[in-house]
Amino acid sequence: MPGHWEGDLILGEGGRSAVGTLVERTTRLVLLLHRKDGRSAVSVEAAMRKAIATLPLELHRSITWDQGAEISTHATFTTATGIPIYFCNPHAPSQRGSNENTNGLLRQYLPRGTDFRSTPAPCRRPQTHPTRSQRERHRRLGRLAGRLVRHAMAESFNSLLKWELIYPQGP
User: N or C terminus of the chain with fewer C-beta within 10 Å?
Assistant: First the structure.
């Protein structure tokens, strides 16, 4: 059921700037929230409100976040938008797997040590980026790798069978 989101921050150089990510669990839709002023709770809440306001009401179900201080104004956000915010257990990033995977993909383009305050103007406003094609490419590569491994295992097994048929007592 669409409308359940996972959120996190990608911090820039020295934690002085950040990019917030909201990933919808079903469709893998990504909302990027550029935060020039870092990770203050008030600025993150304002950016989330602005990004969520652009979405249809069917996509306003819940948000799951880690236990960071940047979401300490969650009660205000929930009261204003009607979207409950749930928190993951400490040290359990697997509870936000889609978001962690997306952040890993984004780190290819936003490497550690990047100062997000100096990003170009088009990147400064919240943007929507579907990552489905990237995910499908990774999935296909995984299937291909699995086929290659199964093929190699089958070849090894067949060669063992042939060895046993030729030399029933061993070499």
Answer: C
Contact assessment for residue 71 and residue 88, using Cβ atoms and an 8 Å cutoff = no
Closest CA relative to residue 17, chosen from 129, 128, 110, 97: 110
Cα angle, residue 62 at apex, residues 56 and 63 outer, rounded to 5°: 105
Q: Which two tokens stand for residue 118?
A: 């100096």
Q: Where are the alpha helices (DSSP H) in the chain?
A: 41-53, 74-81, 97-106, 132-166
Q: Determine the 3-state secondary structure of 55 from DSSP.
A: coil
Tokens of residue 133, six digits: 């094609």
Q: Kindly state the tokens that stand for 140.
A: 């296909």
Q: By CB neighbour count within 10 A (0-12 exposed, 13-18 middle, 19+ buried), where does 33 fall?
A: buried
Q: DSSP string covering 4-60, please?
A: EEEEEEEE-GGGSSEEEEEEETTT-EEEEEEETT-S-HHHHHHHHHHHHHTS-GGG-
Tokens of 92: 């359990």
Give the per-residue pLDDT at 154: 59
Whether 85 and 71 have beta carbons less than 8 Å apart is answered as: yes
**Is the distance from CB of 4 to CB of 17 less than 8 angstroms?**
no
The per-residue pLDDT for range 30-49, each reduced to its tens digit, is 888 877 777 788 888 988 89
Q: What is the pLDDT of residues 68-99, one digit of tens each?
A: 888 888 999 999 999 999 988 888 877 888 88
